[in-house]
From TrEMBL:
Chain sites annotated for binding AMP: K383, G384, N385, P386, T387, G411
Domain spans labelled YjeF C-terminal: 207-470
Gene3D superfamilies: 3.40.1190.20, YjeF N-terminal domain
Protein name: Bifunctional NAD(P)H-hydrate repair enzyme
Record-listed (6S)-NADPHX binding positions: 55-59, 120-126, 131, 149, 246, 298, 346, 412
InterPro entries assigned to the protein according to its UniProt record, in alphabetical order: Carbohydrate_kinase_pred_CS (IPR017953), CARKD (IPR000631), Nnr (IPR030677), Ribokinase-like (IPR029056), YjeF_N_dom (IPR004443), YjeF_N_dom_sf (IPR036652)
Length: 482
């Protein structure tokens, strides 16, 4: 599945119409599917439908007609000046005897559900004046809000903060980059011809269907030397081994992602954990001889991070470069040496590599991840919500994961997990997007069971469950297809 920009979506709509597909059918399906979601979420609670004059408003008018037919009370307020399909949708509603008032007179009543059909993909800039105020009033009213296609005002501010959003035909960038405003996310198929949605040039939304075939096989004859061995290099002897836990968590992540063996190369005095690891205590960053197919480097490395990464490069193995190994000259050394690597920065680290602020990176992670991949020639995992994976021209946006993962050490677990997939033979882009997806899914499983207060090691422990769900095709999607 591809992540559309509002422009790309409009282009698909336009092409469908050029092919002779009646656009009124798209609107009818959109309104009808949204009405279905409404009924599922809010039952027969009365609706207050706010409709703009464009096609988004048209969808709202169609929804109002379908709710009416289901016996739901509707009050409808619409902007004037409809044309085309939206005008037909208005006429159809009026023919049912529904009164449609002017938007200026819209009022909010306790017990109602607001249907936000003011603006969708046609919004050209931030809302001002009357519409800015209307959106603020919607948010202040404290009623549940179902947004059609996009919460009105997105991607700008002010915008509606919805309880749920029904995206039509495909997810659009704001659905994942401004997910908070969307609430529960539904994706409704509205009959747009499939080939118009297959746009290889757009970022992918990582999906179970695309990722399942990447899962490394475990043949009956597997042994610990045949399924991928990982070397973890990290930690810092100074400050009383302050970061000793980080490489241990990476080792756990690697084992829980299926590594056959994990070598732990860490400063002398580092706790000898997990018990299952092969230990290589060293006085300073060194690359001891070890049999491995991939490395995870830099976790907890502090001032040693750079040295760990440059030592590790001598092994010429596929490598995950994390945390303190994330320096421009390290990335450049790997690129020059032609050693495949995955960089796993969060917004702060990515900002450091790009010469931008963390806020700038977080605001547009797609652009930042692509820029970093371009600049370094390596695969990039830009961590956050959402996490974005980039390599060359390819971009993958991850839909799993939640704020319960915002806790110390979860990134270390991720690095180890990706390294295990590299060691199993996956290419950097695939190891990265699969590792990120399963790590997020593990966090989702735990958050559902326990809520907030996870430990990073528990995320590692949940990886096998996440993997199995994916393997067996039992992952419920992060958004709900309708
Ligand atoms: N086949 C299809 O196309 C399908 C599309 N579908 C639906 O259509 C939606 C897209 O519809 P759309 O293109 O009509 O745009 P929409 O979001 O309703 O807004 C346009 C209105 O906003 C106005 N406006 C713009 N910026 C503004 C601003 N800053 N401040 C104030 N006003 C501003 C603009 O005014 P104008 O500039 O034209 O004067 C115009 O009146 C899409 O999200 C989906 O819900 C479905 O029905 C399925 C099939
Ligand atoms: N709000 C959030 N939503 C989803 N995932 C999150 C959120 N906050 C953190 N994470 C995930 O948790 C991990 C944190 O990694 P990182 O910042 O490197 O932590 P650490 O250095 O403590 O290991 C990343 O995988 C990130 O995507
Ligand atoms: K809307």
């Amino acid at each position: 599945m591809r992540l559309f920009t509002p422009e790309a979506m409009r282009e698909a709509d336009r092409k469908a119409v050029e092919r002779g597909y009646p656009s009124l059918l798209l609107m009818e399906w959109a309104g009808m599917k949204a009405a279905r979601v409404y009924l599922e979420l809010f039952g027969k609670a009365p609706a207050l439908v706010l409709a703009g004059k464009g096609n988004n408003g048209g969808d709202g008018l169609v929804l109002a007609r379908h709710l009416l037919l289901e016996g739901v009370g509707v009050r409808v307020y619409a902007a004037g000046g409809q044309t085309g399909d939206a005008l037909l949708a208005l006429q159809a509603l009026l023919a049912h005897g529904v009164e449609v008032g002017p938007l200026e007179e819209a009022s909010f009543r306790e017990g109602e559900v607001v249907v936000d059909a003011l603006f969708g993909t046609g919004l050209k800039g931030p809302l001002t004046d009357f519409y800015a105020e209307l959106v603020e009033r919607v948010n202040r009213a404290g009623l549940p809000v179902l947004a059609l296609d996009l919460p009105s005002g997105l991607p700008f501010s002010p915008h509606v903060r919805a309880t749920a959003t029904v995206a039509f035909a495909a997810l659009k960038t704001p659905h994942l980059l401004q997910r908070e405003a969307c609430g529960k996310l539904y994706l409704a198929e509205i009959g747009l011809p499939k080939p118009l949605l297959e746009r290889e040039d757009l970022p992918e939304v990582a999906s179970p269907e695309a990722l399942r075939p990447l899962l490394p096989k475990r043949p009956l004859t597997a042994h610990k030397g045949s399924v991928g061995r990982v070397g973890v290099l990290g930690g810092y002897k100074g400050e009383g081994l302050r970061y000793a836990g980080a490489p241990l968590l990476a080792a756990l992540g690697a084992y829980r992602m299926g590594a056959g063996l994990v070598h732990l190369v860490a400063p002398e005095g580092t706790p000898l954990e997990p018990l299952e690891a092969v230990f290589h205590p060293v006085p300073s960053p060194t690359l001891p001889p070890l049999k491995a197919e991939a490395l995870a480097v830099g976790m907890g490395g502090g001032p040693w991070g750079r040295a760990w990464a440059l030592k590790a490069l001598e092994a010429r193995l596929p490598t995950v470069l994390d945390a303190d190994a994330l320096h421009p000259e390290v990335a450049e050394a790997y690129r020059k040496a032609g050693v495949p690597a995955v960089l796993t920065p969060h917004a702060g680290e990515a900002g450091r590599l790009l010469g931008a602020s963390p806020e700038e990176v977080a605001k547009d992670p797609l652009t930042a991840a692509r820029a970093l991949a371009e600049r370094t020639g390596l695969a990039v995992v830009l961590k956050g919500n959402p996490t974005v994976v980039a390599e060359g021209e390819r971009l993958s946006v991850n839909p799993t994961g939640n704020p319960a993962l915002a806790t110390g050490g979860t990134g270390d677990v991720l690095s180890g997990a990706i390294a295990a997939l590299l060691a199993a033979g996956l290419r950097p882009f695939d190891a990265a997007r699969l590792g990120v997806y399963l790590h997020g899914l593990a966090g989702d499983l735990l958050a559902e069971e326990k809520g907030v207060g996870l430990l990073a090691r528990e995320v590692a422990e949940a990886l096998p469950r996440a993997r199995r769900l994916l393997q067996e095709g039992r992952v419920s999607p992060a958004f709900f297809p309708r």
